[in-house]
Amino acid sequence: MRRRIAKSPVFKGLSGSLVVLCFALFLAIAPGRAQADGEFVQFDWSDNGSLDAVLAMTRGQMNYSATFSKYDSGKTVGLSVLRLFPVEGGGTFKIGPSFQVSEDDEGDVDSLAGLKLGYEYFTPLENGSLFALAEVNTIESGYFGLLQFGLGQSGVSLEMSVGGSDTYEEATVALSKRLGTGPVILRGGYKFVSEVAFLGIAINTF
Question: Which residues belong to the signal peptide in this entry (predicted)?
């Protein structure tokens, strides 16, 4: 959920974007491998009527992504085109331009352009897998961090994420289940700042 709110006491005196950037640097020296070409689509519906959608596609050394959020005071669309830089023995750095268009509930539109920097990796574990993602964006000092643990061969994953900018913040936990061996995933979770539950569906061909 995106809305203009004051920063909570947890975040006072602490730069979320700096924390995520440090996390990205830590990932850069950890063993792992990046994902191959593929597509990712995700829709989350919250019980307060908000909607969050993500579309991402990787082809070769390029990643293309789009996001859409509908919240209580408006809606936001984000786009990015990132160049990928695989790290031997590690994951993948990515950097490129980003764009954002927001419209509030009074019809005022705000368009912004910036630069996005990120790092991601995937690594198998003894009893599952780990996917990690860290991103920062110069648009409204945006940041996002995610840890996703795959639980054995069950198709079940536990996900924890934090995100924010100059105008919003969120912390989320989610549980997901892949249907069989296909790309369809059902998910549900809770957003702690917004204090709402959500249900979602994803398609992941990575």
Answer: 1-36
